[in-house]
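Write out this protein's structure.
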Amino acid sequence: MKYKLLAVDMDGTVLNSQKKISPRTKSSIDNLLKRGVQVVVSTGRGYAELNDYREIFKLMNYGVLISGGLVYDFFSDKPIKIHALDDETILRLIDFGTTERAMIHLLTLKNSIAREVDIQHMSDFGMEIYFDMFNRICVRTDDLKQYVRENPGDVIKVNLYHRDKNSRDKNFERINRLGLTMNFAEANNLEVSPANVSKGTGLVELCDFLNVDISETVAVGDAPNDTEILQAAGLAVAMGNASDEIKNLADFVTLDNDNDGVAAVIEKFF
């Protein structure tokens, strides 16, 4: 099989434990792009959260962002597909987060929104490794509900970062009744997207746009929010640091993210 597209997750996959891209992995991706193969990020991150990697990914044309809620053309700087949450649903999610004293994080087309008090206490939610990024890029608001009302139709995904697993599980039960797509990305996080929206659906939409058959794609991931894209892709690859659940879905398990697992995939399959 001659694969035409490689979709790589970011955190835990193309990024190492220090949230960096190694020179070997960067070189492998750049060389693949120069050979005419599409390499796309498939990430739970939003557009603003890619700022630190713009130069590294400057040859990359497309991204499946916000867990499939946004399919984006970087070169044209415009969306290909957007799937926003219903505003009333977002208000309910904010209530659920408030009840559990969670950090509530909203992702829109271009912005990452949170409360200042939560950003300054990200260690309470097990998210301290992201503090520097959030502190630099987030739009601050003290009233998230007011932001939603003033910006109707803008929010694509809601992240709820909880203080512990018990709190997360309570909100899982509440949200599960709403028929939305939920994923676990960080230890006590719930990612909430519109129903039937995932990285997998985002990959299908991008393939339709590019006229690439889904069988000609390779997806690489490590976490539960990579499940659907691994199931959709022609070849599913799990990182060595992935959970057993993700490894069991994969056709191949590569090296971990601190040992250039993505570069190893490129060298083996492309």
